[in-house]
User: Fold these one by one.
Assistant:
Number 1:
Amino acid sequence: MGITFNESSKIFKLDTKNTSYVMGVEDSFGYLLHYYYGRKLRHDDVNYLGRTGEAPFTPDRNNRDKLSFLDCAPFEYPTGGIGDFRNHCLEVRTNAGHNAVELGYRSHVIYSGKKALPGLPATFGKENECTSLEVVMADDILGLEVTLQYSAFEELDVITRSVKVKNLGTKEDSIYLTKVLSACVDMDNKDFSLLSMHGSWARERKIQYRKVSQGRTGVVSERGESSHQDHPFVALTTPNITQTAGEVYGFHFVYSGNFEAYSEANQFDLVRTVMGISPYHFTWKLEKEEEFQAPEVVMVYSSEGLSHMTRTLHDLYRNHLIRSPFKDKKRPILINNWEATYFEFTTEKLLAIAREASKLGIEMLVMDDGWFGNRFDDNRALGDWFVNEEKLQGGLKYLVDEVNKLGMKFGIWFEPEMISPDSDLYREHPDWAIQVPGRTAGLCRCQYVLDLTRPEVLEHTWNSISTILRSANIEYVKWDMNRQLADLGSFNLDSDRQGELYHRYVLAVYELQERLLREFPDLLLENCSGGGARFDPGMLFYSPQIWCSDDTDAIERLKIQEGTAMIYPLSSMGAHVSDCPNHTVGRVTPFETRGHVALAGTFGYELDITKIPEEDRNMIPEQVKMYHTYNDLVRTGDYYRIASYRENNEYDCWEVVSKDGKEVLVTFVQVLNRPNYHSRLIKLQGLNPDARYRVQGSDKVYSGDALMYAGLPVENPWGDFKSKLIYLVLE
Ligand code: GLA
């Protein structure tokens, strides 16, 4: 059993293969205190770490110094209004206008397996894969019950957490939740830095470190989605962290809307880290006997550097979060017409691309934005989900059938959550857009967001998408979302419920995607948001892959994919070979390098195959072969970050080792060359030190220990932006 409760000391211990997480019930009031998280402990006798007996903080003796105690005790789920002046997780507003909540332990249950979270994405595990704990806490004065939900994935060094709040109705007919975070961990400062990821459109998930100190350091999105700018992930790292050494505590939020995660050292250098839905414009009215379920936080601890955290998250997401049957399958190599044609295409143009692509081994045509309504540019027509027959002469079914005749599958782009002011839908239902009455709502890319929290809007949206999907043999959907939320207002919600709109919106998106998967179980879904603005664990529950970034330049992608792959499996990273000069940065890179970089993700093309240089086109069959040869390994293997161009300014290198240890694929990208007589020695990771490995295509054989401790010699390719794939097999 991965979770135990010691009846006499009232200590809970959650164990995974290499980690322990310990908390316990304090005697005076029944506060739940956090004692320990880190390397595995043999025993649970660590309640001394709660330091409750240390004067002057003696809660069991009197009330005299209660606030001093509350303000520095390590709480498992701190609440607001009672004297813990640090960042806390739960805050309410009663009808009388008060905000205090104080939680005491009531009961608990431990069981094998893991329950689903209603309406929310979450990790899952069978009875032999994880153990769960629910600790019931309560505030009797409010009649509020708070259930802390934990699961320990024993083989994976993962602990997940979430929280459910219930108004028992014994004291308050309704109560307003104004802040419900999902997790908190208090621990002594180990000179921590906070690793987080930030960016913008076309520059997603750039890795950043900041020192944790007094004052809050963190990430936050109040944009209605997980966003390009900040990512719902933080990790506490000890000094001089590397891929293979140092301690890491990773926290990842399984949610696609507003979030916050903060670390702060208090006056005594105790560090509190919290994560959950951002309290910004959040109020949730909980009527008698109603429950509010907060989303899940995934926690990973590694005492062996970043790499162990990365591989743990990859395995967790591949096996316990992504549900799509495609997660275990090689995805069809697609060609997307966005960068090829933008809005200017016709049936004939798409078929010309498909004809050429099919000859070269590409397996699916994806028709991107511009096929519907009056969509000749991005100023109009979102919401008018009927085929534009001026562009698609013969209709959608004709096009799909013709593509199928070429032996290719067909995929389509939607942006179902949006409405353009210049659309039939808006002219008919102007109130369907999220807006504050009496105020002109701001546009972004000339569009508004549909108020999907209204049942009739959700139903209409569903009917529009499903009608199109039923009208032809469509096997893939790219679900886009190209603006963030502002001017929050819903005609559907009472004034005291307007603060529910952000979260209800995310729940509605989840409901729509759930319905899509239920009704079209064989569909391959790829989420997208102006590139990678909704690349988050929540979305992975619905789609096995997410478009990583609109920046398709191979060199820019190195940093974007490094950040993304640190916490997401390569199998989920949408990556395409595009044309040069690159449409985002104007850079010219070799076609081969573009192929090698895209191979680290789902792999596909995004260019006008009828127009690219002959020489590039001729390389496609070879790249197709490369994908078929290596994708099983890339999709299922263990990923190691070997070198980072972000850190060394010269080259990037990553490695994938098959789970059985027999195959190793090294990708080396030389960004800027420099004079050097010798080859570069690249220290590999994750090999068997006793084994020997042969470099395919040569007669070179190396020992595993030499490759790891001395390095694999990689000859400098001549020039900039050059890359190499090196494939080694166990002798
Ligand atoms: C977003 C996507 C692109 C493309 C365009 C279409 O920016 O990320 O890949 O689909 O929308 O408008």
Note: Residues 642-730 form a domain with the Immunoglobulin-like fold (CATH 2.60.40.1180).
Number 2:
Amino acid sequence: MSIVALPSLRETIAAAESAFIDHFNAPAEFVVAAPGRVNLIGEHIDYCDGYVMPFALPVYAVFAAAVVPGRRTIVFSAGGDFTDVEVNLDEPIEPVDGCWGNYAKGVLAGFLARGIEIPDGFDLCLASDVPLGAGLSSSAAIEVSFATLLEAITGTTLGKKEKALLCQKAEHDYANVPCGIMDQFASAFGEEGKLVLIDCMKEEAELVPFERDDLTVLISNTKVSHQLSDGGYAKRRHQTEVALKATGKPSWRGVTMTDIDAVQSELGDEVYRRARHVVTETARTLDAAKALENGEMETLGKLMYESHDSLRDDFEVSCSELDVLVAAAKELGADKGVIGARMTGGGFGGSTVTLCRTDAAEEVANFLAERYKVETGIDAQIMAARPSQGALVYKGA
Ligand code: ADP
Ligand code: MG
């Protein structure tokens, strides 16, 4: 039994509500939730005007909160090893290096910058079941959940798109991560039984039905997160900007292999390969959406493997642990129920996503877990996930 059972949203909500009572000696008036996400295909191109196809996971960051009339102070608590964070609404909101509260502070700053009035202070507790640093976007879950809380508390509902963009800016400005729009869009727009196909140039999300009980998405957390990942992400982003500039085009949309081949010598080998990933991954994502629509699972699986190869060889954001899991899935193959596999998320560790037949899922997970343990000595954490509901207000106006 290698597939771990996931807590239900009800359980995470109950944990947040009871943490709130323990911490503040009063019941919460507001309870909101926003999920992490997994990306099926389209990696590292959400900041290159590409297409990406994630879905919202059934694991959530839940905030329980209560307004404290007149006291213009917000107290955040996440329990565990995380220290409480206090913000005074009448003072500038400053990030503190490495502090978990930065995600919420950045979102708060975004609301204030829009002139949305927050008349009173409030207390809040976070309970999150999104694994941290596993490529499943625990950070976007916190941002989108907190933005949803502020919508409920202030009575000002932003559109999903505006909310997601505000959260992305929070991550840029307060957590210093120059991320694209995928994570926040998936968390805000996700729906049960739907993939979120995002056009990252138009900043539009289209819901693509994925109601296939016969298929299961396994997420295998390598439990490794390699050093330098932050610098690695920013460097990749910078390299894609250098490559685009060399093509002379205003956007990656419409850049072809012919365009990048024409400037290959100017780019040099490494930047050329980064550019090749952007062009081929964008095409793969659109092909994957088409394959899914036509029920061509073999094609979808092939595109997932190709995506992994490109991330490993051209974009160089994979690592040996991710490669072990993808190779194991591929080795098992279609006969044993595996459709496709690839690394998911920013890379340098984190998780892989394996699409398989539901009737084979347990055996596939067992095989991945065993192989991973033998090769790395680490127990992978393997979850089975279906596309789930995005951000929601559970309690409160
Ligand atoms: P990812 O988003 O891929 O999980 P990040 O490094 O972007 O990884 O975000 C992880 C950070 O989010 C943590 O270092 C912490 O600051 C914050 N975080 C995630 N989950 C929690 C939690 N349950 N409580 C407090 N902070 C959390
Ligand atoms: Mg993150």
Note: The first helix runs from residue 9 to 24.
